[in-house]
Amino acid sequence: MLRQQLLVLYAANSSPDSEIGAWSIFDGTGRHAHMAGDAAQPPYASVLAAMRDGWRVIQLPQLQAAAPGAEHDTAYLKYEFVLEKLVEI
Asked: What is the rounded CA–CA span in Å between residue 18 and residue 44?
């Protein structure tokens, strides 16, 4: 039986080979429970490194410029990549 794992990587820019600044992991297998801040280093150095390890990209970041005058507003992390891996349990 297959179960889905999700990996959300927030990159420095829109390129899949850019450095990862933040991440979240969701494990549908139930094997591991991850929490925010449970590791000092990201699981991969880049989205491309995760892809080379078998993760599939299912969402790329939306590329849209900030509205003029809103450059310093707080919002979501801009360069979000969502990846998945199907794992046999």
From this structure: 11
